[in-house]
Request: fold
Amino acid sequence: KAGDEIFKFTLPSEAQVNSFYQNNAGKINKPFFEVRDFIHQQLKLQQINQAKQKVLSQLIAQGDLAILPGN
Reply:
């Protein structure tokens, strides 16, 4: 639950999935219905990673996080 509050992101919309497909249809070479779910999942992962990076950068900037080298 706390992670949901910290790492806020929105699921990709159908319009975003469609837009991605239209912009990359020449590279994909498959019908939309075959790749729709995969595109949605990849856009979702991209948004999650961006949210994590944003929080990490904020914590480092605030001095609330230090990354120590491993042994």
Q: What stands out?
A: The mean pLDDT is 86. Residues 3 and 68 are 22 Å apart (CA to CA). Residues 32-62 form the longest helix (31 residues). The chain is about 70% helix and 0% strand.
